[in-house]
Amino acid sequence: MTQSEEILEQGLIKTLTEMSYEYVSIKEEENLLANFKVQLEKHNHKELAAHGREHFTDKEFDKILLYLEGGTRFEKAKKLRDLKNFQLENGERVWIEFINKQHWCQNEFQVSNQITVEGRKKCRYDVTILINGLPLVQIELKKRGVELKQAYNQIQRYHKTSFHGLFDYIQLFVISNGVNTRYFANNPNSGYKFTFNWTDAENVPFNDLSKFAYFFFDKCNLGKMISKYIVLHEGDKCLMVLRPYQFYAVEQILDRVQNSNKNGYIWHTTGAGKTLTSFKAAQLVSEIDGIDKVMFVVDRHDLDTQTQSEYEAFEPGAVDNTDNTKELIKRLRSDSKIIITTIQKLNVAVTREYYNKRLQGVRDQKVVMIFDECHRSHFGECHKNIVKFFNNLQIFGFTGTPIFAENAKQEHTTAEVFGDCLHKYLIKDAIADENVLGFLVEYYKGQQNIDLFSEKRMTEIAQFILNNFNKSTFDGEFNALFAIQSVPMLLKYYKIFKSLNPKIKIGAVFTYAANESQDDAQTGMNQGFADDKVTSDELQAIMDDYNDMFNTAFTTENFSAYYDDINLRMKKKKPDMEPLDLLLVVGMFLTGFDAKKLNTLYVDKNLEYHGLLQAFSRTNRVLNEKKRFGKVVCFRDLKDNVDAAIKLFSNNQPNEFIIREPFEEVKKELNNLTIEFLKKYPKPQYIDTLQSELDKRDFVLAFREIIKKQAEIQIYEDYNTNDPDLYMTEQEFADFKSKYLDITVGVINPLVDATTMAAEGEIPYNDESGLEDIDFCLELLHSDVINVAYILELIANLNPDEEDYDKKRQDILDTMIKDAVMRNKSKLIDDFIRENVDNDKAGFQQAKADGSMDLESRLNEYIATSRNNAVHSLAVFEGIEEEALTKFISEYDYLHREKPEIIQKAIRAKKGLKLMERSTMLKRIIERLREIINTYNWD
Fold this sequence. Notes:
By secondary structure, this protein is an alpha/beta fold.
């Protein structure tokens, strides 16, 4: 018999009580608040006793609750960690502590279960861990055999329907089905890919719930995780939690700083989040007694605009981003404990007498330096000068690709410069954990035995890239880099691409001045510097094309601004910024560049060892289901180099998970899935006969696997939709897809009218997993080609006087309905066509004939009016200021982030509402606003 959810829950509670957690029975929120008062008084008993008190009065406690209620989830996370200066009724002031961050074991730990919360739905949460009476960890359980994503999806529903009040203080979630267990920060909708296994220091996962609980829920470990290893990201205003390998790396550095003067380095594969790890290390090292300065040292090539903003998000005000060395001197002489600067500027500071004579007071201080990307730029004279200058220095390095004897083109290895490797997290570990993607490496089958610089060969390659670009990048949803051997070769490729009149946007970047630094030369990393024969005019010509494409005005005089602009366009992070599709590079952007929207690397360049893996790793950042791996197309025979690099940086361990299997193997897997699927569902029409939700669920789960494998195979260069060896035709797939999408209606993002938002019961221990628990693969079924411009083009081509008008009109709606993202907008377009074509045929035809037709403006006006009407109806129904709802949507349009505090403020203006009613109303309104945004926003 399968272990039930209830038995799993009781087993976990038993484990926790054996670990000295106090079990407390809390049935509903009134009990929760009463328990919080008792625990808060217990935790602050010394402070209260100093004022002759044991308890807070009811009025005082109400004021504390009112203080805790205000603000966003991010602001509440700050309140949790801050001391609150609070005035008692007698006028005396006390400092209230909600959690002890410095002595994290000295908190009050409790466990409860089945707490009932009234929101839009009545929900009972499985297991709750309370620290000092606040629910800081929520555990959602499913019986063994149930997919773990169902627990994750249930938590997402709780965010929409019930979390409020003290439950807004949750810091961590844990999900488990007994045999698989994961944890993640309270950052709603960040995605299942941002849930993590806990492991030991050797990266062996603790999947079993009992083993996970024994290590992760150890009171001191959990207290430390919440106090020290949750990061409040200022840029995105969200919570992040360190993954286990990040935790162990920081712990190793802290141990070495506290207990020795030895150096060390961290080997964490590219893409594993070294910036977050190293910053958390810097932050915690700076808190150690006796440490005067912590310096985070980067190469100048890495300190771009995006990197600076990320650094600022972790440690506001710490980045020394000016070119003025005086500013660095000023910061070193100040009380600032954490400084981020470049190795080049630090070298100037310590070698030039004008500067270093001002640093003599710092010279003998205890300084810890953390070097980012220590596989390069840290073996030359800069590094030697810095280490020689400071008398009491401890250094640590981070790298994804250490320098060993095999790949050492310079004098020293990483170990010789930095000492012991303190922690390893290799690419094989990261792929197994789904923290980075593996690689699909394909080798061009065109002409090989001709001159590499031949125009015929290069034209053939350029045409191949253009012909296959949409397939590789999912119709431009992603973008690509083209790594080229030299600047002269890049210039030739650029001219060839231009002559082919590409439909995609192509740019190029290289450093035009002959100013290659000694450090760059010694590391063997060609950064793309041109020789003296290449003038700035050739780069300017490329920049002029770029300026014409994007309406910019860059010149070689402001090259850094051009570089930053390319950086942003390649990252596709700004919705109002038109992206770059293909970037030609020599060395730039092949290291240190992190773009989740980049999925393809074309290579006509000799790469090996760390240079090869660094370049390949530009493509393997995790984003979504559609991005299954990083794709690399080699126009040179690099297979031996690829195998050698993977072997070296996998520590000579098996690497079969790193490079994706060949096309024929994937095709075989797809066909095997299809055979089994068609046995059960021989025709698309058969799906219409499915009656029960469980039967529909089984179909969805089966077809979901077909969708995933289809998304994987279509990016291979050998894939052909008309391949006779595929057992499901393109038309059959489309028909089954339509049935699949039909089932999602009302399950995913249902458009619920505000009048139907009644509270519903939710049964605990419900092991019958329905459709709403399924993680639908809708993002794999959306094509960016089916966008507003495409739909408007179809409408413009309508002729209401033709016999087949009704069919063509319906085809437009069917096209939208078949797309996962556009289908919920089909009714809006149907109404738009009815108003602008059906009800005004003569006007529509006349506007087409005289050229006055501006469908885009009409649609924008129609959408704006419809959205305003929806907002007005919601305002009337809820009795809330319409201006607040409009502001919420406007802020979302601008920031692409919700600001619930806008609605909170408007709700507070309504008199007579109790705390519970305010919380319920907030959840209800924001859910409806999400639906309005989802329907009427088209970017």
